[in-house]
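Duplicate of earlier report; Beta-mannosidase B input re-posted below.
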Amino acid sequence: MARSRHDLSHGWQCREDDGSTSTEIPWLPVQIVPTQIHTDLIDNKKISDPFLDLNELPVRSLAEKCWVYRTRFPKPPGLPSAGTSTITDLVFEGLDTFATVLLNGAEILKSDNMFLSHRIDVTSLLKDENELEIRFDSAMLRGRDLVKEHEHEHTFYVRQTEVSRVPVRKAQYHWGWDWGPILITAGPWKPVYLEQYVAKVEDVWTECEVSPDLQTCSGRVLAKVSGASGKSVRISLALAGLVVFEKECAVNSNGIAEISFVIDRPELWYPFTHGTQARYELKATLGSYDTISKMIGFRRAELIQRDDEFGKTFFFRINGEDVFCGGSCWIPADSFLARIPEQRYRDWVKLVFEGNQNMIRVWGGGIYEHDAFFDACDELGVMVWQDFAFACASYPTYKSFLDSVEKEARQNIRRLRSHPSLIIWAGSNEDYQVQERYGLEYNYEDKDPQSWLKSTFPARYTYEYLLPKILSEEDRFAIYHPTSPWGDGKNTADPTVGDKHQWDIWHGAMYRYQEAFRLSARFISEFGMEAYPHLETIRSMIAVEKQRYPGSMMMDFRNKAIDHERRVSTYVSENFTIKYDISSYTHLTQIVQAEAMHFAYKAWRREWGRRKCGGVLVWQLNDCWPTMSWAVVDYYLVKKPAYYAIKNALKPLDVGISREFHDWTSGHVDPTESFKDTKFDLWVVSDRIQSVQVDVAVRFISIQTGQDIRPPMKFDSVTVHPNTTTEILKNHEITANSTGVQDNTQFTGIAEFNPYVIHATVTVNDQVIASDTYWPQPLKYLDFSNRNVTIKAVGDSQVAISATRPTKGFVFEETRGVKLSDNGFDVIPGQERVVEITGIDAQSLKYTYIGAPEGSIALSAQ
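Output:
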C-alpha cells in the first residue's frame, strides 16, 4: 500500500468555548481549514473587518476568549481492520496555540507551541464515523498566567506590547507591534489531514560541502524512514532530468538510509545578482510504499569576519564571490496567516527579485516562513536571513520553555535545511538591546553556559549555546549569528563589528537622511523611514471620507509607530514646503521615504569597495495590514516610490554623486551654504564579476531655467572594476553660479545664485544604464514652479515623461494590479523618461510631482 493523504479541510464548525456544556452558543460554519478565528467570525458576519476604520478596537477582546473547532468525518476509504500493518496518522501541521485535541471524545494531544507540527497514530481510535474537536485557550490569558507562575525565577522584560507574549511560543506580532494591530489569533492555522501508510520516507536531505575551488561537492545523503525494518531505499539525484547518481541502500536499525557521494564540477546555486540557480532533484523511493522528492541546490556560503582598518568585516561570500547584500526585512504578510495563499508568497518574492534585492531577512517576531516562500527564493535566487522566533524581549529559560524551543528549532531547521537560499540563521531580533536597555547581566568573557542561566539575562543560554548546538546537529554547515544586531559581545550600536540596526535616522537622534554617509556600519540589517501608502490603499482602510486627512483620529490610529506624528512631520517640514491635503501630503511622505532610501543605499553601497559595509536591508519590505509604516510596498503589494529608489540604487552597475553636506537647521548655521562654492564626489559601483568599459557624463543644470550652466564633464572609456567601487572624482570643487552677485559672500536670495542639479549618467554602447541626480539641500528652499512637465501615452503599454526644467519626485498614483517599470523619479531636461505599464490603461493614470498644481492629476485631463 502506497502512502495516501486524506485532507480534513472542509466540514468544520467553530464557536466560543465558555467552559460550559451550553448549547446556546451556536456553531458557525468554517469555510476551510487552515483558518483562524477572526476570519471565521468575519465570514459569518459576527465581527466587522478589523482592517477597516477603528474596527480593530472592539475585536481586541476576542483575545481573552477560548474557542473550539470541530469536524465529523467517515473512516477513510481503504482503512484496514485491526491487526494489519497499515498505520493511520492524524497530522496537524500547526495549531495556534494552546490546543487540546479530542478524537471521539478521547484526548489525544495537548500543544502549546504554534511553531510545532504534530503526528498522532490514531489507527486504533478511528470508527466508521468520527468527531474531531480542537479547543483553543486564550493565548493572552495563558501567557499572563505563565508570567505569574515564573516571575519568582525570571523577570519578563519586553520592549513591544504587553509582557504576556514572552512565555508564549506564538508569532509575537499578534500582540501588536509598531506597525501592526493587536489581533491575537487562535485556530488550526496549518493543514489538518489523515495519512495512511505501511512504510514511509519521512525526510531526505544532504549533508555536504562544496570545495573551496568549487570543483567538487562531497558529503552524504540521508533518508529517514518509518516501518521499513529490513527494507532498502533507492536514493537518486538528477539535474535537468539527467541522473547524477542513483543507489540502493539498506535502512539501519535507527531508520536511516545513507550514502556518500562526490560530484565533480557541480552546477552551483548563486544569488541572482551573481549567477544562475542550479537546482537538483533529490529523491528517495521506498519500494512501492512511498517516494518523496525535493529540489535542492549546492553552494558554498561563508560569513567573512576578519579584522581590518575599520574594525571587523561582516559580509557574505557565495561560491567564492563576495556578495553585497541589498534587500529588505520581511514581516508576516498578513495578521491572519492562514489566509495567505502560496501564490501570494511567490508574488512577494518576485517583487523582491524585480527590485534588484538579493537578500530578504525574515524577522524574529513573526514565523518560520512557509515552504512556498523559500521555494520562490530558491527559484529566483534571493538569499534568506532567517531569525529564530524571538524578538524584543528577555525570554525565560525554565525547563518546559526550553524543551519546547528545542522541538521548535529542530522541526523548523529540518524543514528548511535543504533550501539553498537560506544563508544564515540568527538567534533573535534585538533581544540583546533589551539586555542593554535594562542593564541585565552580560559578561562576554564568561564562556560557561550554566552560569548564564543564573544571570538576569538567561536567554543568552538559548542564543549562544542551545540554538547553535541544535543547528550544528541538524545542519552542520549552516551559518549562525547569535542575534541581530550583534558584534562579538560589544554594544549593539557599535558600527565597527557585526550587524547594526541603524535607527539614528527616524528614531534616536533623528539625523537628516542626507547624513546617511556618516552612519555606515559593517552590515546594516535594519534602517527605515515611514511613508503613507497610495491613495487607493488609504481609501480601503478608512471608509469615512472626512477622516482621510493627515492627523485625523483614524489616520493616527492606523499608524502604530511611537511619536509618528512628530517624526513624519519633522522629516517632511525639514525638506519640503508642506501641503496638508491628503493627496499632496501622501506624496510628500513618499518622496521623503524615497529620498531616504536613495541617500542611504547610495552612500552605504559605495562603502562596499573597501568591504566597509557588506549589506543594507531596509526595514521593511511589507505590511501585515493596510497602514502607514516603514514598508516600501503596502499590504496589497502596491509599491511606494521608495521601492523604486532601492531598485535603482541596487542596479548591477550604478553611479553615485554626493555633494558636500551643510546643515541648515541647527542653531546659527548659514542656510545659504548649499548654494555657494561646494565639492562633490562621483563614483560607479558594480556587482559584475568582470570589468566593464563605460562612459560617464556629468551635467550641471539650472533649476530655474533648465539650461546647462557650464559645460558637461566627460569621462570616456572608464574601467569599472568588478564587484567593487570605482572612484572617479573625490572632493572636486565647483563654484556657485552667481547671477548678479559679484561677491558670493553677499547673499540676498537663492535666485541670484541660480541653483543647479548635478546629473550623472553612465553609458554603455550608447545606452544609459544608470543615472543619479544631486539637488541642493534642502529642497524646500528651491522654486519648483513652472516645470513644464509633459506626459504622453506611447501605445498601450508605455508613457513618456519630459520636462523643460529639473523636476523632483514625479510619481504615478499606483493601484492594485498595476505594474510600472519605474516611479518616483526625477525628470531631467533633455532626457525623456519612458515608463512601461501593465494592468491599467495609460489614460487612466494619475500623477503628481513637487511643484505640481494638484496632488493628483489625471493624465486624461491633458
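The first helix runs from residue 37 to 43.

Merging into the original ticket.
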